[in-house]
Amino acid sequence: MSRPWIAATFSGFVIGVASLFVFSVGVRAETITIGGTGWSIGMARQLASVYTEKHPDIRIQVPDSVGSGGGVKAVLNGRFDLSFASRPIKKKNQGKGLVETPYIRTPFVLSVSPKAGKDTAMTTDELMATYKGELTHWKNGTPINHVIRSERESSTTLMAAHFAGIGPLISKKRKSRGALYARNDQEAMDIGEKIVGVIVPMALLAIRAEQRALEPITIDGIHPTLANLEAGKWVMETTLYLVQGPKLTAAARAFLSFLRSEEAARILLRHGGTLLK
Fold it and tell me: Which tens digits make up the pLDDT trace of 111-152?
């Protein structure tokens, strides 16, 4: 004589044990959270994937961009174990136990969709002319436009530092009707991929790590490669800083060691970044 209530009870017991096991594994697995500036996100996720493949007991979370300042704040309040910043720590956050070290050096580039044509090289004067509205089309006839970022965002300040007089032109474009404004690096690259002919200022490593359909623009005959940066031919660069709090878990310290390893350096090099030691 069958006893369905016994079968049901046993099935429930098995499911309960299985659920408890999965939960226990989840509890035992340590979680590391790392994030920050947008151009670090693709690179951080790749490094995290390589690390967790070899350390399945570790879970690494890389949230979407919260910006350099947001990442530092998250380390201070304990939400992040580590963060990446595209600039040094501000004075207001110094003396709070944060440790900041330069981590990566990569070319800062102007990029465009390859659909804008094979010949997108330009001179500094031609670049300035695009912002002035005097040069409006690429050589294949595609209209030229620009991604615009906030006034204090690192790509805006880098542009102003390297191209004399471009700051006011960017500010004017920001206020113009129909400006292609991006809130973060991923949004900027999205716009560049979707709207052919748009110039996107970006870290080379971000483009390569996320495998974006964007190509760096040659300026004044110099192609923006890591080799040309190292040789002093390409002068525009950006540095990524690694920020940690005063206390790190053993798991976070181990991952931090990996971030400075030769294996990590090889991954970064493939994407156009030099690990700084």
Answer: 999 999 999 999 999 999 999 999 999 999 999 999 999 998
User: Can you tell me the distance from the alpha carbon of 65 to that of 93, in angstroms, rounded to the nearest whole number?
Assistant: 20
One domain for residues 112 and 200: yes
Q: Do residues 139 and 245 both lie within one domain?
A: no
What count of other Cβ atoms lies within 10 Å of the Cβ of residue 94? 11
Site of tokens 């190292």 = 230
Report the chain's mean pLDDT, rounded to a whole number.
90
**266 and 203, same structural domain?**
no
Is residue 69 within 8 Å of residue 88, measured between CB atoms? Answer: no
Q: Are 259 and 242 in contact (CB under 8 A)?
A: yes
- In total, how many domains does the chain have? 2
CB 242 within 8 A of CB 260: no
CATH of the domain at 165: 3.40.190.10
